[in-house]
Amino acid sequence: MTSEREIPGNRAPTLTDVAKLAGVSVATASKAINGRAEVKAATRVRVLEAAEVLSFAPNALARGLLSGRTGTVGLLTSDLEGRFSIPILMGAEDAFGAGQISVFLCDARGDAIREMHHVRALLSRRVDGLIVVGSRTDARPPLTGNIPVPVVYAYAPSADPDDISITVDNVGGGRLAVDHLLACGRRNIAHITGEASFQAARDRVEGATAALAAADLSLVGDRPYFGSWDESWGRAAARMVVGQHPEVDGIFCGSDQIARGVLETLRDLGRDVPGSISVLGFDNWEAIAAHSRPRLTSIDMNLQRLGTIAGQRLFAAIDGVSLPSEEFPGRLVMRESTVPVG
Amino acid sequence: MTSEREIPGNRAPTLTDVAKLAGVSVATASKAINGRAEVKAATRVRVLEAAEVLSFAPNALARGLLSGRTGTVGLLTSDLEGRFSIPILMGAEDAFGAGQISVFLCDARGDAIREMHHVRALLSRRVDGLIVVGSRTDARPPLTGNIPVPVVYAYAPSADPDDISITVDNVGGGRLAVDHLLACGRRNIAHITGEASFQAARDRVEGATAALAAADLSLVGDRPYFGSWDESWGRAAARMVVGQHPEVDGIFCGSDQIARGVLETLRDLGRDVPGSISVLGFDNWEAIAAHSRPRLTSIDMNLQRLGTIAGQRLFAAIDGVSLPSEEFPGRLVMRESTVPVG
DNA sequence: CTGAAAGCGCTTACAG
DNA sequence: CTGAAAGCGCTTACAG
């Protein structure tokens, strides 16, 4: 139970109210509350009690005005809808949550005008820094205008290599995927993926091809199958690949949704997964990957951790420590759709 | 191209800098920038040009300190991970995005301590109001302590009926679902749903049962099938229901994931959907509902709109207008899994 | 150890 | 129409 006390005008209690109640000056009240050493113990106690009674919370605006630091940060996303932003956002929130930083969330909805509008608003609120979260891994134009605070780009790198960008290593992810299929004893590996206009798709192809080349192999069909990121493409492409290349014994898919479609077609065709063909997804989207039959092995890009790192980088930059850009490796999450064969 | 100009100490330009450059007093500069009438046109132009040159952005902290309004709002979620929070959050962001409000995002991760910590921080930043977004529709304890600003609860209502809560009408959603199946000519309707511990599950059962009763019918099996919210329960339950009640011709599912599992089993069993059985999901989760075979008809709870309404309610409350709580109806989204029979 | 004073960046009566 | 002054809530030298 917090006892309550009438404040004239029903406004939030100020340090002046606390000082008055404790019978000291505002200067002394300030020192007591901020744990400065030069306050007599008894005085401190009286002030803290008064603050408690009034449920006093120091006005962060006034503090920010004085110190030049607000303890706030802007998080600029281009689409909240997209699944990729959310874990990054959670990770960033985590990085700040522990300390005294509060996060402004702004969704630009993929609109450059709206983004500029938000940036202006954030700067007028004197945020200490900005994190810009993209929705695709393709490089994006850097923020324009006079940005007087540090900026960290997450997921989508800035096109300006001098900016700090924390990104996902999709080439490495593709390599990881194919290396796992090879480790399972597969030799005839196809790659069914999404739109070729996505850097992410092209990077994964590059990694997959490199891993195969290192084993003196190449993709079944001698090329990746580009299409769309969804299940229906997975179903259609799988039917085609199996029809044209019956020897296929491993399929690396560019997304879990594609993989889900691939699994359905293989099931329809009576092909045994993982007995006769291994299937591997990408994204490790729990709702999709963990509930298919069989449950899907997938590559997880550790997006939450990426968000945390981005937050920590911004922290450092605010303190004047400029750390370099970084590419983030993924990890394999084994489920039932891949298994070593004799 | 914004021309840039040296500001001593590399700090953000202040109104004083602008005034100096324009050759007027800060008072006049302030009036010019804020569009007050009592400024000579020529003076105004000079001030605005100076502001432009310096890329001056008025310090919102200083303004907030003066006016007592910060133009900020706290958005408190209990889990960002959950799909339900995101659309609500987007809707709320929308409601504010148009105006001059910025949103602090805080994720309490379902932890009451963490929530209190965030509330304290937000109050010390003098937010003008709070939106509390729950992750389940079960009522939650109201925020504790001395909250001197308006609070709106979204999705999860506050247990205190005097608080403003914007919620989803799950009873109505259940009724909507069954009414549609009835309209399709189905008479033997089963209900497979998630955990009975969820208010949402129980409410939908209530709505479904009421709609059936109005047509002098009852649920196949004379009870709902409670289980978990995922596909595997949908698969298992469908097998059981069809086995025990072969006459079943409509299945209302408590989630799209359950429905997805139901569809798979019916496919395995060679039952024709929607020809011989109609299947209806709940949530209208695009990634799940729009990619099944056949594509799934579902109930959409309009969560984004719910978020927008919550934002508008908070607006009103901040302006001293207290609107009542509101329950939000869902809507039917037709796809291929339901169809009228002759 | 305590308090009066100045000042962070702005706005708003109030003189002139 | 313009500007000097007071003040929003706090912190930080600086006297005492």
Using brief descriptors, characterize the structure shown.
Rossmann fold, 3 domains, 14% strand, transcription (chains A, B), disordered N terminus, homodimer, DNA-binding, alpha/beta, five-stranded mixed sheet, six-stranded parallel sheet, 12 helices, 434 Repressor (Amino-terminal Domain), 342 residues
Explain what you see.
The structure is a homodimer of 342-residue chains. By secondary structure, chain A is an alpha/beta fold. The first copy, chain A, folds into 3 domains: 8-58, 434 Repressor (Amino-terminal Domain) (Orthogonal Bundle), CATH 1.10.260.40; 70-168 and 303-329, Response regulator (Rossmann fold, 3-Layer(aba) Sandwich); 170-300, Response regulator (Rossmann fold, 3-Layer(aba) Sandwich), CATH 3.40.50. Chain A is 41% helix and 14% strand. Chain A is built from 12 helices and 11 strands. Chain A has helices spanning 15-22, 26-33, 41-53, 60-67, 85-97, 112-124, 170-183, 199-214, 231-244, 256-268, 286-289, 303-318; strands spanning 72-77, 102-107, 130-133, 151-154, 164-168, 189-192, 250-253, 278-282, 297-300, 326-328, 331-333. In chain A, the strands form 2 sheets. A 6-stranded parallel β-sheet of chain A has the order 2-1-3-4-5-10, sandwiched between helices. In chain A, strands 6-7-8-9-11 form a 5-stranded mixed β-sheet, sandwiched between helices. In chain A, helix 11 links the parallel strand 8 (278-282) and strand 9. The longest helix of chain A has 16 residues, at 199-214. Residues 1-9 of chain A have low confidence and may be disordered. Chains A and B meet through helix 4, helix 5, strand 2, helix 6 and helix 10 of A and helix 4, helix 5, strand 2, helix 6 and helix 10 of B. Chain A binds a DNA duplex (16 and 16 nucleotides) through residues 14-16, 24-28, 30-31, 34, 38-40, 43, 58-59, 61-68. Chains A, B: Keywords: DNA-binding, Transcription, Transcription regulation. Chains A, B: GO terms for molecular function: DNA-binding transcription factor activity; transcription cis-regulatory region binding.
